Amino acid sequence: MSKNNLSAVILTFNEELHIKRCIESLLPIVDHVYVLDSYSTDSTLDIVSRYDNVSVLKNKFVNHAAQFNHALDSFNINSEWVIRVDADEYIDEDLRVYLKESLCKLPQSISGVYLNRHITFMNKLLRHGGMSDYWILRLWRNGFGRCEQRWMDEHIVLSGGDTIKADGKLIDDNLNTLSWWAHKHVDYSTREAIDIITTELKEQRSSFEAKLFGAKSQRTRLLKNFYNSVPLFIRPFFYFFYRYLFLGGFLDGKQGFLWCFFQGFWYRMMVDAKVFEIKLSAKDGIDVKNVIKNKYGFDI
């Protein structure tokens, strides 16, 4: 693979546990790494500064979609391909070989590449409960990809061209504690509740296509659209049993149960509770946008 063929974009905020692992998994096959930091207060930027072929900018964080598009607009990325990698992710050897040997051979008709994302939870790579073979668009020809405007669960959308699936894995392995994970998902639940409310108000339309026979991320979006049509507080129960029993989450042992419970039930119930809270406050004659801004500090 020739130089200037592939660049990586990483968003960071207090990622001292992960950023070295992430960057060093990419360095053998990328020409440059672009880091957009949200004013980290730990040693993230000190670690990043050790690498010669890494550029850094800072920008106040609003949401992942806006932050990532800001990175695309602000960095002078001149490689043919761009890959998005989260700071707590890394690529395995099979994916590294694919990117090194096969990316430059793709026909011009291909403008996007789906990567197979796997999640590690409490030191266990999850293989069941819907967590394996999660194909997500993370690699695209420069200029063809943008992040859809959402508060949560944002995806890269292509402006044209065909897609292909890559060999290997993109592994999400967050090394923080369960308390940190829970705190992060409390924040995520607010953002997802805002997405649900704004979609119901027809003030947010996604450019990401939900498809039954598309990639798994597209099928997941279709399932989420159906899920959101089910009444509040009932749907988390169905979703937990669907993930844990029907999709075999129990086969991942204790970690499988905890993941399905926290991510598939607790988090979903938190989202529903916040949707309920926002709508309850709006019944008092307060505009929904004002409720969201006053209660959660988000200006939509």
Automatic annotation (TrEMBL):
List, alphabetically, the Pfam families matched: Glycos_transf_2 (PF00535)
Q: Which domain of life is it from?
A: Bacteria
Q: Where is the Glycosyltransferase 2-like domain?
A: 7-95
Q: Which family does it belong to?
A: Belongs to the glycosyltransferase 2 family. WaaE/KdtX subfamily.
Q: What is this protein called?
A: Glycosyltransferase 2-like domain-containing protein
